[in-house]
Amino acid sequence: MGVVENTDPALDEKAVIETAEAALEDIASIRREIGTVIFGQQNVVEQTILAVLSGGHALLVGVPGLAKTKLVGTLGTVLGLTDNRIQFTPDLMPSDILGSEVMDQDADGKRSFRFVAGPIFTQLLMADEINRASPRTQSALLQAMQEYHVTVAGTHHDLPEPFHVLATQNPLEQEGTYPLPEAQLDRFLMQVDVLYPEIEAERRILLETTGLAEKQAAPVISAARLQEIQALVRRMPVSENVIDAILKLVRSARPGNGNEETDRHVAWGPGPRAGQAMMLCVRARALYDGRLAPSVDDVRALAEPVLQHRMALTFAARAEGMHVRDVIAGLVSNMSGD
């Protein structure tokens, strides 16, 4: 006698809700634990966690000394991930990241090659000051980010699961930096701008980080549990009006789609990958906020981190002192007026 599958949608929906509620509790615990070590910077913490929950990579942009490195290390601990840190420098070679083949010789004098894995073979990679490395080295990392494997001496090596890169970048006005090419920037799910802390957060930093013992974060979930939550994010329903809002926003950021401001100021706009990133991130943000479905407000809130590194202004717009953020703010305000 065959087994009859249960196809009752009500039961399926109940199971999803129970799974989501358990995830909400875990995410709340993650937020609390990170808050004991990272003071203030709520937007930075939120957006970085959203990138990981969405299964992607994030680029953290800010001047030195704003705890970007500490945030990444804390996140690795709290999420139960193995982590490595690479300090990018102008003389860093691709093999320093990916690994290389070395020659071994046994007792009989027989020689063979052995692969020595580089620091990229970890679950959470901190790429510190990525724009200080040469374009060749940047490309080696960013290709691995896209394909989740590396090829050394013709041999394919899979990266661990999950695999996330959280890269930090100094603003391009600083000396000794190489700007990331646009196609490579697109591989980051989000660009997170790290600003100076508010005065109360900075006061707390002064008090709590200059004593004899500095508080360390504790693990909250495991890597396997993180993968379960990432799978849940992809299963969350997205309503038609949210999908329409994403499409309208992304398409309005491209020249030639009927938006006069965009046509005048934007040289090129975001591709379909921006919409894919937004679909994942709005779901993750809903879960992060304790909701079971995203809203148009999530689209508005994530417009800047998802779009800003996927657009470029015309020379004339830059000469006028405009920034991509100004254009995105205008597009978001048009959404609000609908």
UniProtKB/TrEMBL annotation:
Signal peptide: none annotated. Gene3D superfamilies: Magnesium chelatase subunit I, C-Terminal domain (1.10.8.80), P-loop containing nucleotide triphosphate hydrolases (3.40.50.300). Residues 57-190 form the ATPase AAA-3 domain. Pfam families: AAA_3 (PF07726), AAA_lid_2 (PF17863). Residues 263-326 form the ChlI/MoxR AAA lid domain. InterPro entries: ATPase_AAA-3 (IPR011703), CbbQ/NirQ/NorQ/GpvN (IPR050764), ChlI/MoxR_AAA_lid (IPR041628), P-loop_NTPase (IPR027417). This is MoxR family ATPase.
